[in-house]
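Our platform keeps sequence and structure together, in a single record for each protein. Such a record has a labelled line for the sequence and another for the backbone structure tokens. This encoding replaces a full spatial description with a residue-level series of whole-number codes. Below, we set out a record of this kind in full and without editing:
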Amino acid sequence: MAEEIEKSVPAEESLMEKIAEKIHHHDSSSSSESEYEKPDSPSAVKAKIYRLFGREKPVHKVLGGGKPADVFLWRDKKLSAAVLGVATAIWVLFELVEYHLLSLLCHISILALGGLFLWSNVHTFINKASPQIPEIHVPEEAFLVIASSLRNELNQAFVILRSIALGRDLKKFLMVVVGLWIISVVGNWCNFLTLVYFCFVILHTVPMLYEKHEDKVDPLAEKALKELQKQYVVFDEKVLSKIPIASLKAKAKLG
């Protein structure tokens, strides 16, 4: 009888151990599930922060990456300063000094050809081999790529303009009209060359400043965008919704 009691005791102990293991396993799985259901990590929350124009890529990639983006973001300060300095010199030359492009190209060509001509003759006169002037060939592929990209952009612009002209999107129509009106106002203030130079300066300053202060700019931009959306909803209710576009479309189809 005592032996049977001793045998039953280890059996009960093993059974209790199994029950404890199951309870421990259940607690660990529930704790892991609760950890899984916890709020997102700070990095995930940071990734959900509003970015200007809804971008998901860094500013460097938005600008196309590579050397042009490095120039616009001043990653190479010497090159960026040189590019901006050359653009400023060209603007001063044509806008302030009132030099003409055709005259500039002709004068540069005269100086270059005259210098090379004299250099070649001097080498011949002192019995030296003529200087090695490299042959210049314009690559065909580069022009084809540029032409193809330009064609795609123009076709897309024509599609948008056609949809606006057909009265399909009033919002785009108003945006285009306002944009063209702003460009016309700016055109009255300055000529085309000055406008291009200002755009060039903006490309060399605004992206760089935005990249440095994007954590401060994006929340402000989000608030401004929400306010604009509210104003647009009010404008839509009071003005746009009262324009009988649907009846005009129906008449156009019947006609």
Remarks:
- The radius of gyration is 35 Å.
